[in-house]
Amino acid sequence: GNYRLQMSAAVFVNNLSRQNERSLNSVEIEEEPTTPRARAEIVVEMEICIDSVSSAINAEKAGASRVELCSNLIEGGTTPSLGTFQVIKELTAIPVFVMVRPRGGDFLYSDTEFDVMRKEIEIFKEHKADGFVFGILNSDGTVDKKRNKELLDLCRPSKVTFHRAFDVTVDGNQALEHIIEMGFDRILTSGMEATVLEGLPFLKQLVDQAGDRIIIVPGGGISEKNLSRILDGCNAKEFHGSARSSEPSGMEYTRSGVPMGGALYPAENVIKTSNINRIRTMIDIAKL
Asked: Name one GO cellular component term (predicted).
């Protein structure tokens, strides 16, 4: 208990849009106290969300179970480059799950976008991706069973995760049953809230409803500060986070006022990388 109270690492937020970012320090949620489970008897897996080779190397060194490879994390992650994937495979042995998302924004895709998703799966499967992560919705907020099943079958025998498109479905309980029916292995979810901490009550309900039919993976705003509370609060056996820290880039000269992105552009003289110490700390917390 005292160890957890002494944790002072910065809280990170992995929301679908930077517009939704907020400090977890300002989030106060009243909930019934939970009885700590004997986590030492349970192997809790940590998946690291990454967008670089450096983060993959750090995740492996720190002992993460696998990585989810994306690009464009400021928009919640999109399909990564094949070059990044190949270099990670050359330099590490950690399992790599590939995000398949042709753009930021919603999860209703045109015919051409769906063609792109199919092609990306074929390419990454040929290059030995260990798993895939995607999700497609209908315009009414329900799960698109036809298209998801087509991609799911294309991915096999690899493992497949339905990503946080789940969190913006019209009915989470119904969506869970449809995703199980299609045969997905995992669902990545914040409990249909901006962060896992806020979605904790529904996450527990999802874990109970799912039973051993599918793995529920909490993800979205998980940090050293709240991990123990989250694991005890929903009895999840896996969790997902980026565990990133910022460091200055090597640029000596910078020109201000000339951003390369749009209105939501990030600082361009800072590099964010998954941090070995943060990953190790969270893995240790998960074992307590």
From this structure: nucleus
Bridge partners of residue 68, in order along the sequence: 49, 97
Helices (H) and strands (E) in the chain, counts: 9, 10
User: pLDDT tens, 238-250?
Assistant: 999 988 888 888 8
pLDDT at position 65 is 96
The DSSP element (H or E) to which 205 belongs, if any, is helix 200-210
Burial class (CB in 10 A: 0-12, 13-18, 19+), 173: exposed
- Secondary structure (3-state) at 134: strand
Residues 6+ positions from 122 with CB-CB distance below 8 Å: 154
- Structure token pair of residue 223: 């940090």
Which pair of tokens denotes residue 54? 């450096």
The string of pLDDT tens digits covering residues 95-108 is 999 999 999 999 99
pLDDT in tens, 71-83: 998 888 999 999 9
Structural domains in the chain, CATH included, are 45-244+266-286 (3.20.20.380)
- Token pair recorded at residue 130: 């260990």
C-beta of residue 77 within 8 angstroms of C-beta of residue 50: no
Q: What are phi and psi of 130, to 5 degrees?
A: -85, -20
